[in-house]
Design brief:
By secondary structure, the chain is of the alpha+beta class. About 30% of the residues lie in helices and about 35% in strands. A hairpin with a 2-residue loop joins strand 6 and strand 7. Helix 1 crosses helix 2. The longest helix has 16 residues, at about 100-115. It is globular and about 40 Å long.
Length: about 170
């Protein structure tokens, strides 16, 4: 499958919202979502517009040959001055485009952005049951740094998260 990775644009808001809602609706519960709904297209559009003014964060998309968005990666610098060299990332890939390199390509975009932004460490959280994502992150070079018990609230339950990091 062919795709390109590029910075997200405000015009991508509707497609990104559909992607997030589709991934959120998967029964495996891949995303952190307390109500099954991603932000609205308007909220997503405003967020993407705001990124144009700030260098502390970025969103990248994977666009398939047919023009559909099949992946999203967000990355944002930590706000505290003592950890401003660290950025947190979130990744989602459409079920139809998993295990074909989309996740790795988006992670590469995050690393490129991190180099240009002076970031020395990328962090992420992943659910312990998300074995495909864990395998992707390990192959890419992420290492487990911690295990956070009851860190997130999903469907009325506290769920654990694995903290992983990639050092640049």
């Amino acid at each position: 499958m062919r795709f390109i990775v590029r910075p997200a644009e405000p015009r991508d808001a509707d497609a990104l919202t559909r992607l997030a809602n589709a991934v959120s609706a998967e029964p495996e519960g891949w995303l952190i979502s307390t109500d099954g709904e991603w932000r609205t297209p308007g909220d997503e559009r405003r967020y993407l517009k705001a990124l144009r003014r700030y260098s502390h964060a970025a969103v990248f998309v994977a666009e398939a040959e047919d023009g559909g968005l099949v992946g999203r990666l967000s990355v944002a610098r930590d706000a505290h001055p003592a950890s401003a060299h660290v950025a947190d990332l979130g990744l989602m890939v459409a079920a139809s485009h998993r295990r074909v390199g989309v996740g790795s390509a988006l992670l590469e975009a995050a690393v490129d952005w991190a180099h240009s932004a002076g970031i020395r460490k990328l962090e992420l959280h992943v659910f312990p049951w998300n074995e495909p994502a864990l395998a992707l992150y390990r192959r890419f070079g992420f290492e487990q740094e911690g295990f956070r018990k009851g860190h997130y609230r999903r469907a009325g339950e506290d769920v654990d998260a694995i903290l992983m990091a990639y050092r640049l």
